[in-house]
């Protein structure tokens, strides 16, 4: 059974701080790793994806991947109240294979 | 910016009835998916579709469900004999071909079975 685990939160951070979201996965065959943001009642919105070990930065977001530890994280710098949402970690075995989602971590950025 | 569109946004149906959820994937995408999310739970994969046939399906996608691409643009999910536990958000997604590609989600259809 392929599992993706996330701390459900809520994770509360003050405005301007760094939010750190973590995710572990069980399938060592996983090749592609995605972070989606989901506002309440809305659909998942892709923030970042990462395929190789190390860091990948995009604006205020940095994704980190460690395949040996089966661990992927998302850092949000200079957190804003508008970042308050549930962040979903999703993985697949590459290509166009289906995504396996975690339950998500609810982030609350306090103004 | 191209997007995946889904209709209707909200569907209420009586238990035992059949529903059809519709999706228009992004035009140059070749892979299509249906996912569902029961309230408060995680997003779950139902089925993927490529080259006019199912490429993969989950245990959830049993004989109650079917998918179809009736024309060059629409992608539908049919749920027969709906049950109360089918109440969920249903998301359509599409992705372009490639070695590592991301899936883009539609805004979802909220299905309520009463």
Q: Would you tell me the overall average pLDDT of chain A?
A: 95
Q: What is the overall number of helices of chain A?
A: 0
Helical content of chain B (DSSP H or I, runs of 4+): under 10%
Strand percentage of chain A lies at: over 45%
Q: What order do the SSEs of chain A take from the amino end to the carboxyl end, as H and E?
A: EEEEEEEEEEE
Q: Helix coverage percent of residues of chain A?
A: under 10%
Number of helices of chain B: 0
Label the overall shape of chain A. globular
Q: Class by helix and strand content of chain A?
A: mainly beta
Q: What is the ordering of alpha helices and beta strands of chain B? A: EEEEEEEEEEE
Low-confidence stretches of chain B: none
> How far apart lie the N and C ends of chain A?
40 Å
Protein chain pair with the most extensive contact, residues per chain: A-B, 24 and 28 residues
**Overall residue-averaged pLDDT value of chain B:** 94
The structural class of chain B is mainly beta
Q: Strand count, sense and closure of the main sheet of chain A?
A: 6 strands, mixed
Annotation, overall tally of beta strands of chain B: 11
Determine the oligomeric state from the structure. heterodimer
Q: Please tell me how large the radius of gyration of chain B is.
A: 13 Å
Determine Rg of chain A (CA atoms, Å): 13 Å
Distance between the termini of chain B: 36 Å
């Amino acid at each position: 059974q392929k599992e993706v685990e996330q701390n459900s939160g809520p994770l509360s951070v003050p405005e301007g701080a760094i939010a750190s979201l973590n995710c572990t996965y069980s399938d060592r065959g996983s090749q592609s790793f995605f972070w989606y943001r989901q506002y309440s009642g809305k659909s998942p919105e892709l923030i970042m994806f990462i395929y190789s070990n190390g860091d990948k930065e995009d604006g205020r977001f940095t994704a980190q991947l460690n395949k040996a530890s089966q661990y992927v994280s998302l850092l949000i710098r200079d957190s804003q109240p508008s970042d308050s949402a549930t962040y979903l970690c999703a993985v697949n075995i590459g290509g166009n294979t289906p995504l396996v989602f975690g339950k998500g971590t609810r982030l609350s950025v306090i103004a | 910016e191209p997007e995946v569109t889904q209709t209707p946004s909200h569907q209420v149906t009586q238990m035992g009835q059949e529903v059809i959820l519709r999706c228009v994937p992004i035009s140059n995408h070749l892979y299509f998916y249906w996912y569902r999310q029961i309230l408060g739970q995680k997003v779950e994969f139902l089925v993927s579709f490529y080259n006019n046939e199912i490429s993969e399906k989950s245990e959830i996608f049993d004989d109650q469900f079917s998918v179809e691409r009736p024309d060059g643009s629409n992608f539908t999910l049919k749920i027969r004999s709906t049950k109360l536990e089918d109440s969920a958000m249903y998301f359509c997604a599409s992705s372009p071909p490639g070695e590592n590609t991301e899936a883009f989600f539609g805004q979802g259809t909220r299905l309520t079975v009463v």
